[in-house]
Amino acid sequence: MGMARKIAINASGSYKSIYHTIKVKFMKYIYIILPIIFTVYGQIALKWQVGKLDPSQNMLSDKYVYYFVLLKNPWIWSSFLAAFLASLVWMAAVSKFDLSYAYPFMSVSFALVLFFSAVLFNEPVNLYKVLGIFFIILGVVITSRSA
To answer: Which domain holds residue 81?
Structure first.
């Protein structure tokens, strides 16, 4: 009887059941969205902090000093934490989705890193990069429709 009641409630198309369905689907996708956000954050934070150091310190003789200075930086540690959190959330994602469905979404991070690196670091964006990102996103759209 419980199942028949659920079907009747869902078949009624009530606002509450539609809202619940959307909420449940969104909560599943948050497991794909969060690793992307954490990954992009980590890459941007690393680039930002590495770029603040004097590039001449990146010489072979000063390599250990260079890395030691980086490892004392809390922003660098926050990027490591973001990578760790991305891994934890990704474990939840692959428990809820097929890997072949979920993994292509991670390539969205390429587009986001390209965008933020252009905006924040004035890195060049050319036609080849834009076309590459276009095809990556197209690939994500195509693979996500196959599920």
So the answer is: 2-145
